[in-house]
Specification:
244 residues; mainly alpha; Glutaredoxin; Glutathione S-transferase Yfyf (Class Pi), Chain A, domain 2; 2 domains; 4-stranded mixed β-sheet; 6% strand; binds glutathione; Glutathione-S-Trfase_C-like; Glutathione transferase
Length: 244
């Protein structure tokens, strides 16, 4: 039977998880498109694509035929659809900002989606106390702190909202995969964004998200973004581990 949604993405977590964690949390039924079909749609003429796009993820609403690409736009669509948008326009805008901040971390850690591989020099400017990754994580930490999130909180969300917003889904999608695929980075998350890391651990206690995380580990192991850039990131982290 055709499910409500179809997600088009590669067989890795990366950007796709920003979409999937919302569908999982909301208890929505979705299919994941076969990779061959993603390739077929990605390389089709734009006039033949369900929504004109360059790179996945994309999401299809099967009943209506509505299709949307661009990670941040898909997240915005889903949070609106399922009622996870803060009432205040200011908080709604800050939630969107946090989504884009999280996606920026994916862009930066992959050196703009694998445009360049890591060198030791470049990596030493990126990872370490006070370095670029810490700064990116620190931006999220400061935003959550300004909205009242405390490390010791056992309730409450990123922007002080009563329920999850796009910001919570995005930080969870980001931190969960960084920690699961590259466990030494947990140290960086704890150092640079302790409140947000605790929040993500709390969000991850949700049984649906826990099952989703376990399923991804079983299916793909520690695969994060795949390809040469994944090998480059993993080798930098391995060298850091040996040196420590
Ligand atoms: N800005 C887009 C970027 C999409 C993107 O770069 N997708 C990657 C996978 S994460 C891809 O497969 N790109 C192929 C391409 O650019 O040709 C988004 O956030 O969705």
């Amino acid at each position: 039977m055709v499910k409500t949604w179809t997600v088009g993405y590669w067989p890795i977590p990366f950007r796709g998880n920003f979409v999937k964690v919302i569908l999982e949390y909301a208890g929505e039924e979705y299919d994941v498109m076969e990779t061959s079909e993603v390739i077929q749609l990605k390389t089709a003429a734009v006039s033949a694509q369900p929504v004109p796009f360059i790179g996945p993820p994309f999401l299809l609403h099967n009943e209506s035929g509505f299709a949307i690409s661009q990670t941040a736009a898909i997240v915005e669509y889903l949070v609106r659809k399922f009622g996870f948008v803060p009432e205040s326009p200011e908080l709604a805008a800050l939630a969107q900002k946090a989504v884009l901040d999280c996606i920026d971390v994916l862009v930066e850690i992959t050196r703009h989606n694998g445009n360049q591989m890591w060198t030791r020099d470049a990596w030493s400017e990126f990872r370490g106390p006070g370095k670029r990754l810490d700064q990116c994580l620190g931006v999220l930490e400061e935003l959550a702190k300004r909205h009242g999130l405390k490390e010791e909180h056992s309730t409450g969300f990123f922007l002080g909202t009563e329920k999850m917003s796009a910001a919570d889904f995005a930080v969870y999608a980001l931190f969960e995969q960084l920690a699961r695929c590259m466990p030494p980075l947990i140290h960086d998350l704890e150092r640079a964004a302790p409140r947000v890391w605790k929040l993500c651990q709390r969000i991850g206690e949700n049984p649906k998200l826990q099952a989703f995380s376990n399923a991804q580990s079983q299916r793909w192991g520690r695969s994060f973004c795949s390809g040469q850039i994944e090998a480059s990131i993993f080798s930098m982290i391995e060298q850091d581990e040996k040196a420590s």
